[in-house]
Specification:
The chain is α+β, with helices and mostly antiparallel strands. The chain is built from three helices and five strands; from the N terminus they run H-E-E-H-E-E-E-H. It has a five-stranded antiparallel sheet with strand order 2-1-5-4-3, sandwiched between helices. Strand 4 and strand 5 form a beta hairpin. The mean pLDDT is 91.
Length: 127
């Protein structure tokens, strides 16, 4: 893993979201512990890791005709949906989690620019 590159990419994400990134972490799937981040939240990493595992298990058990692989999870929180939690599966070992303030960050920029630009470079840095 190139930790310097991972941290630089997290800084790019923060810049791209123009003050709307509340926190971001790359964390281990096996332990839920952060390996790099901005305003890291160890408890959030562990909880988001468990949440993704449970959602994946539930989808598998549901019998729905959908893929059982959980690639990205996006949750809007609050009555006005002002906070979005994003968790992205990076590889067999790591996930990328973000808390985004939707009143400051453009969701179009997040989904159409920041994630697609950062994701392949982040995966490469983790090899």
């Amino acid at each position: 893993m190139n930790l310097k590159t991972v941290n630089a990419l997290m800084a790019e994400v923060e810049d791209g979201l123009q003050g709307g990134l509340a926190a971001a972490d790359v964390f281990s799937k096996s332990s839920g512990m952060s390996v790099a981040g901005i305003r890291s939240s160890p408890k959030a990493c562990a909880l988001f890791n468990i949440l993704c595992e449970r959602i994946g298990e539930t989808i598998k058990k549901s019998g729905l005709p959908v893929p059982d692989y959980l690639h990205q999870t996006m949750l809007r929180l609050g009555e006005d949906g002002q906070v979005m939690i994003v968790v992205i599966d990076l590889d067999p070992k790591y996930r990328w989690g973000m808390a985004v303030d939707c009143s400051k960050a453009s969701l179009g920029i997040l989904v159409s620019v920041v994630i697609p630009d950062t994701l392949p470079r982040l995966r490469e840095a983790l090899r």
